[in-house]
Amino acid sequence: MQAAGGGSPRMLGVFAHPDDETFCAGGTFARYAACGADIMVASATRGEAGQIRDARVATRRTIADVRGQELRTACSFLGVRHVRLLEHHDGRLESVGHSTLVDEVAALIDEFRPDVVVTFGPDGGYGHPDHTAISYATTDACVRDGAGPRPLRLYHSYFPQHGVLLMERLAHWLTNQHVGSPASLDFVHALLLLAEQTSTMRFVQDHSEVRWYPKGAYVIEQGEASGELFLIMSGAADVLQERECGTTDHLRHLTAGEFFGELGVTSHGLRSAHVVAAEPLSCLVLGTTEPQKFAPRGQATVDRPMQPGSAVAAAEDSTATACIDVTDFVTAKVDALCAYRSQFCLQRGMLPDSLMRELYGQEYFVQVLPERRPDTGLWVSG
After folding, report:
1. Using an 8 Å Cβ cutoff, are 13 and 30 in contact?
2. Distance of CA 3 to the CA centre of its chain
3. Which among 120, 170, 313, 358 could disulfide-bond with 135, CB atoms 3.0 to 4.6 Å apart, if both were Cys?
4. Coil, strand or helix: which one is 210?
């Protein structure tokens, strides 16, 4: 791989917040860094208005500095050598002024002289106004006349709709291994955040939510269709099996950190037992569709069985012009995500490697400049 003018190629990623770079193009940065590319990542803000999901890591007073350092740590895992923070206020990029943002990004381009620039698409990935603002500013900086050397190529990151069901993958993982003690609270928290993030970015098609059940409530009824996977966040539940003669056997007592419902999900069959809240119970629930108001229970659900999920071939999406295989660099991407302790309670090895490769093994882009054509890389061969 070689830049058009000779020497090591250069790539510039311009995003709105720390961690955007990892979700949008972390595997791609790692792949090209391993091939000798010199890479810079610029974040328009420090992400100080984001959630603080671990109070042990940051407070509102310190979150800006913490996320800035997390960005640098994440970039080191990805092989990114240069990191810039533009120091705008998180959540207020639209008020900065488009021309000001364009000037700042153009100055970065003139200084770094990248061969490739990567940023969000015009929808900001999923509609975030800061993402949209930096997308338009970066795009205009790349096409503006008379502003010094321009990049050879501009790409927008793209998130195609996949058909993967996270609950189905987790259910198969659970049934194919011996699960001992309940999962840690960090695991529960990490899975909740992963479900939210991957659904928002269209990596999975699950509906996820946290539900609360009072003591004595039926969570699952024996004989109904299996369309959801449950993870207990707090409280406890009893698994009860009802015999045809009317007697009931107590099969198991479940506590925080334990899954249930996986056997029905993997078999696409009917529930083999009741699950009843033994005390006030909260669960992370992954399902195929959003629950409907007044939805039937028990045998009435049998006419609406769960449809198994299957990966949609995202490469067939006509919008994406480049599909980058980053399977060999998923570990680096996961390490970078783990660096964001204020945002995620994720640790390497917490979730099965096969699931992480399926979710993050390909990254997609739309070529904006100079022309649009299908490709499997971001550079023309030297």
Report:
1. no
2. 31
3. 120
4. strand
- Report the run of H or E that residue 219 belongs to, with start and end: strand 218-220
The string of pLDDT tens digits covering residues 138-191 is: 999 998 744 455 567 999 999 887 777 888 888 888 887 655 667 887 888 888
Radius of gyration of the chain (CA): 23
Distance CA 185, CA 268 (A): 29
Contact between 59 and 19 (Cβ < 8 Å): no
Instruction: Dump the DSSP string for 266-323.
Output: HHT-B--SEEEESSSEEEEEEESSPPPTT---GGGGTTSPPPPP----GGG-SS-SEE
CA distance 88 to 85: 8
Amino acid at position 197, single letter: Q
Tokens 């240069």 locate to: 82
The whole-model pTM stands at 0.83
Q: Which residue has the tokens 């991957």?
A: 198
Count Cβ atoms below 10 Å from residue 111 Cβ, excluding itself: 14
For every residue of 158-219, which 3-state class applies, written as one string? Answer: ECCCCCCCHHHHHHHHHHCCCCCCCCCHHHHHHHHHHHHHHHHCCCCCCEEEEEEECCCCEE
CA gap 284, 72 in Å, rounded: 32
Tokens of 302: 């049998």
Nearest to 151 by CA among 139, 162, 163: 139
Cα angle for residues 113, 103, 93 (degrees, 5° grid): 115
Q: Which two tokens stand for residue 372?
A: 């649009």
Tokens of 232: 């207990």
Exposed, middle or buried by CB within 10 Å (0-12, 13-18, 19+), for 193? Answer: middle
Kindly write down the DSSP assignment for every residue of 110-130, as one continuous string.
HHH--SEEEEE-TTHHHH-HH
Q: Is 67 helix (H, G, I), strand (E, B) or coil?
A: helix
